[in-house]
Design brief:
- The complex is a heterodimer.
- Helices cover 19% and strands 34% of the residues of chain A.
- By secondary structure, chain A is an alpha+beta fold.
- In chain A, strand 3 and strand 4 form a beta hairpin.
- Chain B is α+β, with helices and mostly antiparallel strands.
- Helix content of chain B is 55%, strand content 12%.
- Chain B is built from 16 helices and 9 strands.
- In chain B, helix 14 runs antiparallel to helix 15.
- Chain B is elongated.
- The relative contact order of chain B is 0.09.
- Classes of the chains: A alpha+beta, B alpha+beta.
- At the A-B interface, strand 1, strand 2, strand 5, strand 6 and helix 4 of A face strand 1, strand 2, strand 5, strand 6 and helix 3 of B.
């Protein structure tokens, strides 16, 4: 089984924003900016109940992609990647289940802890489902330019 | 709840052109989305976006492609700002030279400069309700958003606003004490009873505003306006809130009966009954004072003379005098101005729900002039009462709060149409009432201390 290429893992670890694309009921791609959380195996994102349409789309079609393209969000790095994978919505406990990812989130965005302490101000924002993406295929552009073909890495069982 | 304003394809292209690069996304032949950063040439007038086909990848022309622009500026320490994103969809043509042309057909996005995050969230509350309804149906058991008991109590009762009760009640007790009437147990019961009425009012206000559609129509609530939102958010049901409100009114009634038993007087009975009727009638049919533009008057009477003179009457066992009435006038005006300013950001939703508050009825200029006149009236009433010898000279300490009043007055014009900018002004306005109340209390504390240490010194003019 191939593992996540190191440069892409670095992008995942540093990215403050990524673009999650899901497929809607009409078969169209719909893209949402979200903070990606990488635990070394799966990519996680969280979605507030307020903005839960993406969860409906994932339940309808679990095939998704996550792109990291904005140099501002990765500390100036100019390489870019798109990760295709299968998503699973985890919503056993929207109130607190997602907080198991808080340590990873806090490393990227320390303010999240103080925001969470003030959840009384925006309670629905902190009712969140987890989106777990199992990566299948990675496209990587070392210089970020689409004029050159990406390096493609197949992950998971398909690589066997 | 009104949905987020739509973005048409042309407006979407206009917005897309402002991003330094775009994310071209399509569904590849394995059925997964694939995205590539491109630099598109956008022609909103022609309704198209062109870009060079990415190397090594095949763009299908059989179904729609999307172009997304996204900008989120990370701000170390407090999250993100300048958040905006837009996606434009449409069919594509791929020319022989590899140029891809997207013909825009639809768009969607959000820009927090146009719709602030809190409003965007509020407009999405309906989505949250559907989410929890679907989750409940799937599990066969109710799944609801939650808050800890402490936070839920704080939010549903709007506990911090109790200062509006504590100020007049404490002042009424102090004025009575200065005149030689003070009973600790009845003073504490008065404070408790008044707080129960206030909490009952806060909660019933949410119940009746929800029943009449005013809270649902409001998409720009702030921490000072728009209600507690606990019903809208699904944290408590309408029935639970109605039960809580009823509970507070029952406790208030029982406390009132205890006070009547201990310190009974006709004046106290009248003030208590009328106070509860005005409190309930604030939003409840058939009176609905706030829906008729009489909310300020109801609040001024309730949190001014009723609370202050009521507390005084308990202590004096039915005696009435001009002093508590005079002291209640500036307190009444300033508390009414809290409501008045807090109604400014709510005016669109209120108007939509037929809640004809003063900011709904009057123009911006009239509303601001109304604030200035009323706040000047509060200080004028104080000075006249002191000059007439009804209030003691140290009550003039309240004049030290004039800078806060000026701050509110100056903040209204530039923030009139910006609910979130107005939040700071509303905060200062709440502080103004509290500071003025504390100044009056301090004035009376000085009179009491002076009376104890130097009985011959007269701190009243005339």
């Amino acid at each position: 089984m191939s593992r996540m290429p190191d440069p892409v893992a670095r992008l995942l670890e540093s990215a403050l924003v990524g673009e999650l694309t899901v497929i809607d009921g009409r078969g169209r791609p719909v893209t949402y900016p979200l903070i990606p959380l990488w635990d070394g195996e799966s990519v996680y994102l969280t979605s507030s109940a307020l903005f839960s349409r993406k969860l409906e789309h994932i339940r309808g079609n679990p095939r998704v992609s996550l792109s990291i393209t904005d140099p501002v969000a990765v500390g100036g790095a100019t390489d870019r990647a798109t990760i295709q994978g299968d998503a699973r919505v985890i919503e056993d406990d929207p109130h607190g289940g997602w907080e198991r990812l808080l340590p990873i989130w806090e490393r990227k965005e320390p303010a999240i802890v103080s925001f969470l302490k003030a959840r009384v101000a925006l309670p629905l924002f902190f009712e969140r489902a987890l989106i777990e993406i199992t990566p299948r295929r990675v496209l990587y552009w070392a210089d970020g330019e689409a004029a050159r073909p990406p390096v493609v890495t197949i992950l998971g069982e398909e690589a066997a | 709840m009104r949905p987020t304003p739509p973005v048409d394809a042309r407006a979407g292209l206009d917005k897309l052109a402002t991003y330094p690069y775009q994310l071209a996304t399509w569904i590849d032949d394995t059925g997964y989305p694939v995205s590539v950063a491109v630099t598109a040439t956008i022609d909103p007038a022609a309704g198209t976006a062109r870009f060079a086909a990415p190397a090594g990848l095949t763009i299908p022309t059989s179904h729609d492609l999307s172009l997304t622009g996204s900008h989120i500026r990370p701000q170390p320490g407090y999250g993100y700002d300048e958040r905006r994103h837009v996606t434009v969809w449409g069919p594509v043509l791929v020319a022989d030279d590899g140029t891809v042309t997207l013909r825009a057909q639809s768009a969607w996005g959000w820009d927090e400069a146009e719709v602030p995050f809190f409003e965007y969230s509020e407009r999405s509350v309906g989505k949250s309700r559907k989410y929890f309804d679907a989750l409940s149906a799937e599990r066969g058991t109710p799944v609801k958003p939650r808050l800890s008991f402490g936070f839920l109590t704080l939010r549903s009762t709007r506990l911090p606003f109790l200062t509006a009760t504590l100020v007049p009640v404490a002042l009424g007790i102090l004025i009575a004490a200065r005149q030689g009437s003070f009973d600790l147990v009845s003073a504490l019961l008065t404070i408790l009873g008044a707080c129960f009425v206030h909490l009952g009012l806060n909660v019933s206000n949410d119940v009746f505003d929800t029943l009449q559609g005013a809270d649902d129509a409001n998409v720009t609530p702030t921490q000072f306006s728009g209600g507690s939102r606990v019903i809208q958010y699904g944290l408590l049901s309408l029935r639970q809130m109605a039960a809580i409100s009823t509970g507070f009114y029952i406790l208030a009634g029982l406390t009132g009966l205890a006070l009547l038993g201990m310190r009974g007087s006709t004046a106290l009975l009248v003030i208590g009954v009328v106070g509860i009727v005005v409190s309930l009638g604030y939003t409840a049919p058939p009176l609905k004072f706030v829906y008729r533009g009489l909310g300020e008057l109801a609040v001024a009477l309730g949190f001014g003379p009723f609370m202050l003179v009521g507390a005084y009457v308990v202590q004096t066992q039915g005696m009435l005098s001009w002093e508590p009435f005079a002291a209640s006038i500036p307190v009444a005006l300033l508390v009414a101005l809290i409501l008045y300013v807090n109604e400014i950001p709510d005016r669109r939703g209120d108007s939509h729900a037929g809640k004809r508050t003063l900011p709904v009825r009057f123009s911006r200029g009239t509303v601001i002039a109304g604030y200035n006149l009323s706040v000047m009236g509060a200080y004028a009433a104080l000075v006249v009462s002191v000059a007439a010898g009804v209030l003691p000279i140290p009550a003039l300490l309240m004049l030290f709060t004039v800078p806060l009043a000026l701050q509110v007055s100056r903040g209204l014009e530039p923030n009139y149409d910006n609910p979130y900018g107005l939040m700071a002004v509303m905060g200062v306005n709440v502080r103004l009432h509290l500071a003025a109340g504390l100044a009056l209390l301090a004035g009376y504390a000085i009179v009491l201390v002076a009376g104890a240490v130097a009985p011959g010194v007269d701190l009243f003019l005339g």
